[in-house]
Amino acid sequence: MDFFDLLNTAVTPYHTVDCLKSHFKANSFLDFAGGAPLEPGRAYIVSRGASLIAFRVPRAWSEKSRFRIALAHTDFPALKISPNPDEVRAGVCTLHTEVYGSPLYTSWLDRDLGYAGMLAYVDAADESKLLKTKLFRGEKLFRIPQLAVHLNRNVNQDGLKVNPQIDFNALWSGASKNGKSLFVNALEKELPEGARLVDFDVQLFDAQPANQGGINDEWIYSGRLDNLSSCHAIAEAIASADAAENDCLVACFFNNEEVGSTTREGAAGNFLKSVLDEIAMSVAQNGMNTSLRGNAEAISLSKVGEPVGPRLSSSIALSIDMAHAEHPNHTEKHEPNHAPLLGDGIVLKTNAQKRYASDLLSSAELRLLCERAGIPLQVFITRNDMPCGSTVGPAVSASLGIPTVDIGEPMLSMHSIREMMAASDHADMIKLLKTFYS
Length: 438
What we know:
There is one protein chain. The chain has 438 residues and is α/β, with parallel strands linked by helices. The chain has helices at 3-9, 13-26, 155-158, 164-167, 183-188, 225-240, 271-286, 296-299, 360-373, 392-400, 423-437; strands spanning 30-31, 43-48, 51-56, 66-73, 78-89, 92-100, 113-123, 132-137, 170-174, 195-206, 211-213, 219-222, 248-254, 311-320, 323-324, 346-349, 377-380, 404-408, 410-412, 419-422. α2 packs parallel to α6 (225-240). The longest helix is centred in the middle third of the chain and has 16 residues, at 225-240. Residues 290-309 have low confidence and may be disordered.
């Protein structure tokens, strides 16, 4: 899967999962149905909304089997179109938006904005009114213009202050003589003939394509690097991996990380737990190792650390999200001995308050893995006088008891509509994950 194709196509979490599904299907991954026998060495995918889990079955299950899991998230900060968005002001039709996650507000102004998402509809001729969905991406561009400097004289001295309730209304159409146009009417044109729109989940996105930058093309500029970079690296690694002898290789792509993960599609939900349970039950009922067959109760993952089957306590998870590179113009914002640099390798993220899941043993495992892969490793901690962010690692590690380490690629402009990273760091992440799955 081409990295730039993913960056330019995965403009919503729904599109991210759609791209991942296409990639995995092209690499012979099968749809997983709970309870069905798992074929030795085969690969499967299962999705829930805008989340997806892919896994490779080992050649044989044994009492030494464990899970090797990589975690990422499919979502990114955005402006979502509200349920009743329409208003006319100054002869312009505007859309009220709702902030999703924690975007860098000012970066959304004066940008070419696309719109995309998922539509729920019914066919008018269908008497059963069976609900259907359609993934779509609009062809037009919208915009949120900021106030001219002539009307905000002190903006360069005082800084631009964005009120998201007032300043994030997107301009999408000139008002007609007959009154305001409704955005739902534009969405209905995306549906099959005769269909009726029931609801929608639509967001704005940066429409500028991803690009290489720097005098030697050493950097990548794009929207959504956080966290499509991690999704791409994991997908590339597990798709190219061979089945392990005894371990089950797992890749998890969760939605809603940017809003806390406590949803049915999020890392704090039961999606991963339910899939691992289904795998364990399939092994117990149809297992390739006859000593495990029929032992469904003992192998169930609801009993962590049981002596048979793929055990969580001896498994390992890599939680992969982006990391803060040291900013050349603001070096004071980093802890001096823990300031990752662009192009100097992937980053181990650790935090004494446990905002990251990394602990002594999982961090040590990562160091050994980097040695095996032959790639450099940097370490990040926040300054003691600054709060620390978090990611999917702590939620998964706490709920399942899997030793987990949080890592990432260093980047600048995190949560801006347009972000920046080093191409060599992404190559290192792919190399690390291929080693992890090998």
